[in-house]
Write the structure tokens for this entry.
Amino acid sequence: MNYLFEWLKGLLRPENISAIIGSLKRRALRRDFLEMKIDLNNKKISSITIDGMKITEYSEKIERDCIGLLNSVGSLGFWNPSIFRKKILPSVDNPEKDIFILFDKRSNVAVGLAVLHKRNLNDNSAEIGYVAVRPESRGKGIGYKLLINILAEMKRRDISYAYLKTDSFRMPAVKTYLKAGFYPYIRNEEENRRWQGIMGKLKVSQTK
């Protein structure tokens, strides 16, 4: 019951109204998620320190913290241990190394999370998914810094490309991804129009 309460509390946050409407609209129009990509081959990316924070490896002991963080976002859907183990754990090669959890050192609360999914051997790429920052911890650059550290780890593993999925109503997230070096990966004209609208609202040029 606590999981459901956490999720409803997160879902009903005012900033999630546009996310709910946008998600329903995307499904009604049968649109795919938008994708963003970054070529790591010629990028110099180094790990950065996140003041007052520590990146912790996943273990069953902190599974509850991960679920609480995902539910606090609301728009990522409802989570409980069964769903977490079914959706996330099978999607990675090594949960301890591929699930990145950011804890506030002072409060010992999980404030950020991201998952590095299994490598695609066809093009030596990997998806970064379930990027989440606790609502009350947003606006501090936590998501950006967490992404940079994951990209640096991907470089160390000699992964050539990173990509992630997003949507046209997730403007703050798209802005963060652009800052981290991701660019729109456009697969058709309909997606090109969607990206033009996003870039226009963000007042940035649509470049690779």
Notes: The mean pLDDT is 92. Helices lie at 2-11, 17-28, 63-73, 81-87, 95-98, 142-156, 171-179, 189-202. The two ends are 45 Å apart (CA to CA).
